[in-house]
Amino acid sequence: MELCPLIKNILLLDSEGKRIAVKYYSDDWPTNSAKEAFEKAVFAKTQKTNARTDAEITMFDNYVVVYKFVQDLHFFVTGGENENEIILAAVLQGFFDAVGLLLRGTVDKKEALENLDLILLCLDEIVDGGIILETDANVIAGKVASHSMDAGAPLSEQTITQALATAREHLTRSLLK
Amino acid sequence: MAQPLVKKDDDRDDEADYSPFLGIEKGAVLQEARVFNDPQLDPRRCSQVITKLLYLLNQGETFTKVEATEVFFAVTKLFQSKDIGLRRMVYVMIKELSPSADEVIIVTSSLMKDMTSKTDMYRANAIRVLCRITDGTLLTQIERYLKQAIVDKNPVVASAALVSGIHLLQTNPEIVKRWSNEVQEAVQSRAALVQFHALALLHQIRQNDRLAVNKLVSSLTKGSVRSPLAQCLLIRYTSQVIRESANNNQAGDRPFYDFLEGCLRHKAEMVIFEAARAITELNGVTSRELTPAITVLQLFLSSSKPVLRFAAVRTLNKVAMTHPMAVTNCNIDMESLISDQNRSIATLAITTLLKTGNESSVDRLMKQITNFMSDIADEFKIVVVEAIRSLCLKFPLKHRSLMNFLSNILREEGGFEYKKAIVDSIVILIRDIPEAKESGLLHLCEFIEDCEFTYLSTQILHFLGIEGPKTSDPSKYIRYIYNRVHLENATVRAGAVSTLAKFGAMVDTLKPRVFVLLRRCLFDNDDEVRDRATLYINTLGGDGAVVETGEDVKEFLFGSLDIPLVNLENSLKNYEPSEESFDINSVPKEVKTQPLAEKKAPGKKPTGLGASPAGPPSTVDAYEKLLSSIPEFANFGKLFKSSAPVELTEAETEYAVNVVKHIFDGHVVFQYNCTNTIPEQLLENVTVIVDASEAEEFAEVASKPLRSLPYDSPGQTFVAFEKPEGVPAVGKFSNMLRFIVKEVDPSTGEAEDDGVEDEYQLEELEVVAADYMLKVGVSNFRNAWETMDADCERVDEYGLGPRESLAEAVNAVINLLGMQPCEGTEVVPNNSRSHTCLLSGVYIGNVKVLVRLQFGLDGPKDVAMKLAVRSEDEAVSDAIHEIVASG
């Protein structure tokens, strides 16, 4: 187990450090108050940094935390002290982009809360018990969206096309950068 | 980029007000969950309620047992709906509720149906849920499906089964190990993540079989692993194989190095980095092996991505500790990172530069750091201060600029930990670089003029008292010290009084002036301050004349207290007022070895001002009490040392016996601690027959049998020997346990009247030279060494022959001498070819001994050692050499 890359937690907080959706995969934080303390500390440590264009990174209490912000949403992925930073960053990027696709480009707290089911499913598709399931945002979003699509629920056939369009746009943007 | 900040304030009101979960309440949501029971299910509505429940759990809300059960049963009803989206939420919900075993049965059949469904999404998720909540019994039922799923053509299903396998392996290894063939097939999958998960599981199944892991690695490193994550795993497994095979392999070609090096050219950054890091962490890595790894890390340093820069600089920082030269090529890139937006990266860059920098670049570097220091947090500053300290020790000639830097930052704002780090560093530099002493002391004096931390003020005053009088012009410090008496709180004032007195005692010309100042302190409003002033005035020769203060007075007032404070405290507590006054010599000096937990704490940092660690209360007290209560041993005098218990029987034998060796000046007492582990036996009249034919200088004088030894209640028997006084006699003793055994009726617990005499052979026991040595540490080895008379120094060289490693040789010598390693020198850094180890102890007859050991590798395995001993008695110095020569 110890040789396998492990994710300790994935956090999505708002611009005041409050939880939107969090998932812990490790026993390092056994109680809710321990979790909240960790979130508070991480938030305080990162809040002043600019993590809007590229993912940022910090060391913290023997954890490596990679993070990225957009609008009033703060995304975090935590790994152990000796984890490969770039793997953690890949997970973060997968989560970040998948949420972007699922929220159809309007990525903010309001939209995230309104589609919390999608965010929770998204977390469920990225990591299982600390082990990375998938890091490709398109695959993750596809898996989450397809479930809803089959049901004829909010995301329709059209939204998938839209989602893919957003993905394409996203790609061109990153290429132009 | 700053726009969200501004914008947020504008429309903050409506944004903060709106949330779909505003005013959400657990009770209401649980009520809402009743819709799950409707005969006509509304999937959208149900999904929303589940989302609300999950939201509550996510916010840290907990459900009582009853609530959870209720929700669980309601949720199971939702399996009736064919709505895929809703089913998906049901899966997540069940995992979150983590149902109990009897609840699991309810959903088992539904989940097993989904597991065999045609819809891939159902199969994948049902597997994950079922494996998460199941216990071992169910596993055999679904094993068949899981094996199929592992080789399922849909990668999501295969991954789900494999990842579940990884989790299940922790609890049900036997079952999961049977899936080996399927997992092996999955390793060949074309789907990237399936390959990754399969590799992870396969390795875990085989991890205890070294040969199998070896084979796995050799076959895969030749083939093509597609997924970057799988490739990272393979690199980790490869390094493990390299590490484990390193012991058998003599220097030469390292297996699999080519594979690692090849990975440096991989297209995925995570693989490149994983490989580079693996190479830098190889045991005994050569600079040739390092070069390609350093080159790719150097490229990462100028990446636009902070994560890459951080990863690279963190790894290079570690490399710089062991191979500073290898990293110097990156110095230019490193320097540009000092201004990095990300302060973690900047700090790592600076500390790396400080490790790799050469003498000529120090000044330039310091200029850059000065700008940098103002805008980083204290925790980073401490790291920098520590790096500067080691740099200064490396380049003593640069002490002026480095000391200036330290004193500048000492004047700036900062918390206690940070200030302490700076003061500690200055103190260490003063100690180790004689030229830096005067300026360092003045910096410290200036600091205490405006220091808000009582602890630091008193520590600095104490240090001034030791070092100040030895400087060329001690008088210039008096003003700073006396100012404390006017301006500070009582604790600092008392410290200042002691320091003043030290100046008076050590520097005769200053004495009259110091006395004037001390007399003024007699009117202080604090008891402690007045008491100290009175004591010093009276003991130092109160008339204030220029007379020399007697050595013994100095020793009494300012000599180091070589007794652990805890022991002194205990002895004082036990002392009962009587005719006989308290004798400080009766306080045991043994410092009990520190508990493991404390040892683990980082002991690397040299303690700056800290006094020698006071040990916890020792068991010596207990032994001493026990022995003095036995009349036969009462006249043996003071107990010098008691050894740790030595086992004389194997574990789990009928009788467990260990022995403690008590060393007195002219006697040795063996205390045999016996335990009877047979419930049906009672032992009586237990003695140990000791054959001392191989210990010529010892003669048995007394033996104290143990009356009775019932089952499972330990008892002691003693044997005492006489030996030549003060001589560290050694010898071998063979032991035989002799006793009368009586049968015990287990039901009544009563023993029969008649017993049978019996014997039980114990293992041999040795009294060795180390038994005559007390482990007593010194806080400052260098000082202690220099105060010891050089005439009593004995130096010689020894060849220790081929040894497993340098560390093993160092340990062997430490154990042979039984002395206390000082300043953490018992730890031998990896790969070092030479090592210096400092030991201190007290030899029988209360003779202080200091030992400086220098080890060097001579050829591939041969260890050579230079042993320098200083002690208060040259005969003892010779004796130490004899121990080593014969050991």
UniProtKB/TrEMBL annotation, chain A:
Q: How does it sit in the membrane?
A: Peripheral membrane protein
Q: Which domain of life is it from?
A: Eukaryota
Is the Secreted keyword given for this protein?
no
Alphabetized Gene3D superfamilies for the sequence: 3.30.450.60
Domain AP complex mu/sigma subunit as annotated: residue spans: 7-146
Could you tell me which InterPro entries the record lists for this protein?
A: AP_mu_sigma_su, Coatomer_zeta, Longin-like_dom_sf
Q: Which UniProt keywords apply?
A: Cytoplasm, Cytoplasmic vesicle, ER-Golgi transport, Golgi apparatus, Membrane, Protein transport, Transport
Q: What's one GO-annotated cellular component?
A: Golgi membrane
Q: Where in the cell is it found?
A: Cytoplasm; Golgi apparatus membrane; Cytoplasmic vesicle, COPI-coated vesicle membrane
Q: Name one GO biological process term.
A: intra-Golgi vesicle-mediated transport
Q: What does this protein do?
A: The coatomer is a cytosolic protein complex that binds to dilysine motifs and reversibly associates with Golgi non-clathrin-coated vesicles, which further mediate biosynthetic protein transport from the ER, via the Golgi up to the trans Golgi network. Coatomer complex is required for budding from Golgi membranes, and is essential for the retrograde Golgi-to-ER transport of dilysine-tagged proteins. The zeta subunit may be involved in regulating the coat assembly and, hence, the rate of biosynthetic protein transport due to its association-dissociation properties with the coatomer complex.
**Into which family does the record put it?**
Belongs to the adaptor complexes small subunit family.
Self-association or partners: how does it assemble?
Oligomeric complex that consists of at least the alpha, beta, beta', gamma, delta, epsilon and zeta subunits.
Record-given protein name:
Coatomer subunit zeta
Gene that encodes it: LOC107946121
UniProtKB/TrEMBL annotation, chain B:
Its chief place of residence is cytoplasm
Would you tell me the Gene Ontology cellular component terms? Answer: COPI vesicle coat; endoplasmic reticulum; endoplasmic reticulum-Golgi intermediate compartment; Golgi membrane
The record's subcellular locations are: Cytoplasm; Golgi apparatus membrane; Cytoplasmic vesicle, COPI-coated vesicle membrane
Instruction: Tell me which UniProt keywords the record has, alphabetically.
Output: Cytoplasm, Cytoplasmic vesicle, ER-Golgi transport, Golgi apparatus, Membrane, Protein transport, Repeat, Transport
Topology in the lipid bilayer is annotated as: Peripheral membrane protein
**What is this protein's function per UniProt?**
The coatomer is a cytosolic protein complex that binds to dilysine motifs and reversibly associates with Golgi non-clathrin-coated vesicles, which further mediate biosynthetic protein transport from the ER, via the Golgi up to the trans Golgi network. Coatomer complex is required for budding from Golgi membranes, and is essential for the retrograde Golgi-to-ER transport of dilysine-tagged proteins.
- State the name under which the record lists this protein: Coatomer subunit gamma
Give the originating organism.
Gossypium arboreum
